[in-house]
Amino acid sequence: MLNPRLDEFTDFPFQRLRDLIAGVEPPSGLEPILLSLGEPQHGAPPMIAEAVAANAHLWGKYPPAEGTPELRSAIADWLTRRYALKPGFIDADRHIIPVAGTKEALFLAGLLVVPPTLPDGRQPTVIQPNPFYNVYLGAAVMAGAEPLLMPADASTGFLPDIRALSNDDWRRAAMMILCTPSNPQGAIAGVDYLAYAIEKARAHDTVLVVDECYAEIYDREPPPGALAVCQSLGGGFNNVLVFHSLSKRSSAPGLRSGFVAGDPELIRAFKRLRNYASPTIPVPIMAASTALWRDEGHVEANRSLYRAKFDLAEQRLAGRLGFYRPAGGFFLWLDVGDGEAAAKRLWAEAAVRVLPGAYVSRDDATGANPGQPFIRVALVGDVDSTSQALERLVQVL
Ligand SMILES: Cc1ncc(COP(=O)(O)O)c(C=O)c1O
Asked: How do the domains of the chain map onto residue ranges?
């Protein structure tokens, strides 16, 4: 027996890419350059290994589901500094739960929030952007909700046009997921946009999930955060959960460490759910995470590297393939006409691996797929290989 909801998914994007290029040999003599996966390659900070070694005696402990007090307070301090929260506005015990990567936590958010049916008997929805991070679909579908996909293309500033939603759309929505800076487009939601989403969510008892895992990878201005917007609106963190990760901020995707913060009722329920679902962070990894949230030096160094790579991209691509310099995140989102064909050619002719935009988007109700013309290029490697890859990309496309 299998859960038929699984039939609603395609394979994960990276499997689809492997299938697309199966049997295609890149030119011999060219070193392959992989820009398909959003996996930062800047090198994990040495403080991780140091903290893990210093806490090796704790491998024998089952990790507490609510995280260590040290980690929760490092996160609360970071949030307070980063978003200029009033001292004490965020409570390390009531408002924060460390999670073993936000991927798992985003998936669980669906199970946390989505009821079997709405009071009027209808199937609930989860509103989400299109293109998207694929786990949003998993969170909606496996929890029994219908995904309501909102196009996020150039005409909407690469963010969903949430003002176009009707009151009934909001009433049906158990959850809305926003991503800022957005993957793949790198668009940043402004304060007014977030405030509108929060107020609408509160008015309709929708849970607003704001995926801020790229919040620390930005070009000029630090992206606003939903918790700071809650502070200015009043009403505490009601109906709002933000998701943050060390994977991108600290170039440590293998650490599996992030956190969820916000509405205390939701956080309490999340702790209960996670006790049954159990993806926890090992205690030595919590110690390393504590050190990372307390350090900004390595984060600034990461940002400088991304800026240097976006400078290169701008030099090579300005005026071509719909290039724009994203305000945040580390992806180029290039309009190549047919993303699958371009990805295949780049592999076959230049040994450069990128992701077709259609693999991070879906046909919407009108049958259009906003990602189809695009490729997503993850600038996650070192500056030299990125420079080479961009050179090859320009030659091929
Ligand atoms: C938009 C977005 N959210 C969440 C995640 C999950 O990150 P992690 O599970 O490493 O915290 C990713 C990873 O690629 C992502 O791109």
From this structure: 4-43+298-396, 57-297
Distance CA(205)–CA(177), nearest Å, equals: 14
pLDDT of residue 368: 83
43: enclosing H helix or E strand: none
Neighbours of 87 (CB within 10 A): 6
To test ligand 1's pocket by mutation, which of 104, 185, 213 has the most ligand atoms within 8 angstroms of CB? Answer: 213
What confidence score (pLDDT) does residue 10 get?
80
Burial of 70 (0-12, 13-18, 19+ CB in 10 A): middle
Is the domain spanning 57-297 CATH 3.40.640.10? The answer is yes
Looking at ligand 1, which residue's alpha carbon is closest to its atom 12? 103
CB of 102 within 6 A of ligand 1: the answer is yes
Q: Give the pLDDT confidence score for residue 301 in this predicted structure.
A: 96
Question: Which of the following CATH numbers is that of domain 4-43+298-396: 3.40.30.10, 3.40.630.30, 3.40.50.1000, 3.90.1150.10?
Answer: 3.90.1150.10
Q: How far is the CA of 211 from the centre of ligand 1 (A)?
A: 8
Q: What is the DSSP letter of 280?
A: -
Pocket of ligand 1 contains residue 103 by CB under 6 Å:
yes
Q: Residue 364's pLDDT is what?
A: 80
At residue 383, the pLDDT reads: 94
Q: Which pLDDT tens digit goes with each residue over 18-70?
A: 999 999 999 999 999 999 999 999 999 999 999 999 999 999 999 999 999 99
Whether the CB-CB separation of 379 and 331 falls below 8 Å is answered with: yes
Positions of the chain with pLDDT lower than 70, given as ranges: none
Q: What pLDDT does residue 132 have?
A: 94
